[in-house]
Design brief:
With 286 residues, the chain is α/β, with parallel strands linked by helices. Helices cover 26% and strands 29% of the residues.
C-alpha cells in the first residue's frame, strides 16, 4: 500500500523531511544524543567522516570508527522529538522512499542513546553511568500507538497505586532494552529502571516558582520497590526510544551519565571528562 506524502513527507530533494538525509547516509549502527553539539564530539573520534548534515536541531554525522560504520544523530530534547526521529530512521531503513511503499524485507537498526540524567536513589552518586534495563514512560507517547506492554502491567499497576498517580497524568508504560546491546555495552554499568518525564522542571519534581501539583511524587518514585526493582534515574527520552524501537522491530539501549543526584542534591558542574569516557566505551562496544 502506498504511503501518502502527507503521512511521510519528504524534502524536495527526496530526503526524509525532518532529519533531512537519504537512506545511503545512514548506518545500521546509530548513536543518539540530545545535544547537537555532542555529535561532533563523538565524530571527532572517528577515523573518517563521510557525511555531515544539520536541519533544525537534528544533526547527523556518519563515518568510520575501528572498521565500523556509525551514524551519530542528535534528537533534541523530549519524547516528542524521539517520535519524529525514530519514525524517520525506521522509514529510511524500511520504506522505499521513491515508491513510498513499505519494504518486504525488514532491516534492524541498533540504536544507543548516550545522554545525561539525574539519579533518584541516594546510593547512586552523580558521576555514575546508568544503563536503562527498562524504560518507564511518564510521557504518554506510546498511548497514541497500538502497543502491548502487558508484560509489565502488574509493575505499572503497583506503581500507579503506590504513588497515587494522578488521573490527569498520562498512564505510564514500560519497555525493556535490547538484551544483546545491554550485555555487550553496559555489563559494567549500574543497571535499573529509567523513568522518562515529559519535561525537565515540573515533570521531574523541580520547584522554582510555579507550584507543583504533585510535590511528593519524587519521594514516592525514590521509595517505590517492586520485587526488588527500583527506579534508578530520571531523564526525558528513553521510554519513547524503547517503546517505538520495540514496535518497529529495532534494537535499543540508553546509557546515561548521572550529572545530578536528586536525593542528595549533588550536581556535577563539569562532567565532560566522564562523558568522554562513556562515549569511548560505547564506540568501542557498539
Amino acid at each position: 500500500m502506498k504511503i501518502p506524502s502527507s503521512e511521510l513527507p519528504l524534502q524536495p530533494n527526496g530526503a526524509i523531511y525532518h532529519i533531512g538525509i537519504h537512506p545511503e547516509n545512514l548506518s545500521d549502527k546509530i548513536i543518539l544524543v540530545g545535544d547537537p553539539g555532542r555529535v561532533e564530539k563523538i565524530s571527532d573520534k572517528f577515523e573518517s567522516v563521510d557525511f555531515k548534515h544539520s536541519h533544525r536541531e537534528l544533526t547527523t554525522h556518519t563515518g568510520w570508527y575501528k572498521n565500523k560504520r556509525i551514524s551519530v544523530i542528535s534528537t533534541g530534547m523530549g519524547t516528542d522529538n524521539i517520535d519524529i526521529v525514530l519514525t524517520e530512521l525506521d522509514a529510511l531503513a524500511n520504506v522505499d522512499l521513491c515508491k513510498m511503499e513499505r519494504k518486504t524485507e525488514h532491516k534492524i537498526l541498533s540504536m544507543v542513546r548516550i545522554g545525561t540524567c539525574g539519579s533518584i536513589q541516594k546510593d547512586i552518586p552523580a558521576g555514575s553511568c546508568i544503563a536503562a534495563k527498562h524504560g518507564f514512560g511518564f510521557d504518554g507517547l506510546l498511548q497514541f500507538y497500538e502497543h502491548d506492554s502487558s508484560e509489565y502491567e502488574d509493575f505499572v499497576a503497583h506503581f500507579v497505586k503506590f504513588t497515587g498517580w494522578g488521573e490527569r497524568l498520562p498512564y505510564p508504560y514500560c519497555y525493556s532494552a535490547d538484551k544483546m546491546l545491554l550485555d555487550t555495552i553496559a555489563f559494567d554499568m549500574v543497571q535499573g529502571i529509567t523513568a522518562s518525564a515529559p519535561g525537565f522542571f515540573g515533570p521531574q519534581g523541580r520547584y522554582v516558582r510555579a507550584p507543583l501539583a504533585f510535590p511528593m511524587l519524587n519521594k514516592k518514585i525514590e521509595e517505590f520497590d517492586y520485587k526488588n526493582h527500583k527506579i534508578t534515574n530520571l531523564e526525558m527520552e528513553c521510554s519513547a526510544i524503547y517503546g517505538l524501537g520495540n514496535l518497529l522491530g529495532h534494537r535499543t539501549l540508553t546509557v546515561c551519565l548521572a550529572i545530578a543526584n536528586r536525593v542528595t542534591h549533588q550536581f556535577l558542574k563539569d562532567y565532560q571528562q566522564q562523558m568522554d569516557l562513556l562515549i569511548s566505551k560505547v564506540l568501542d562496544r557498539i
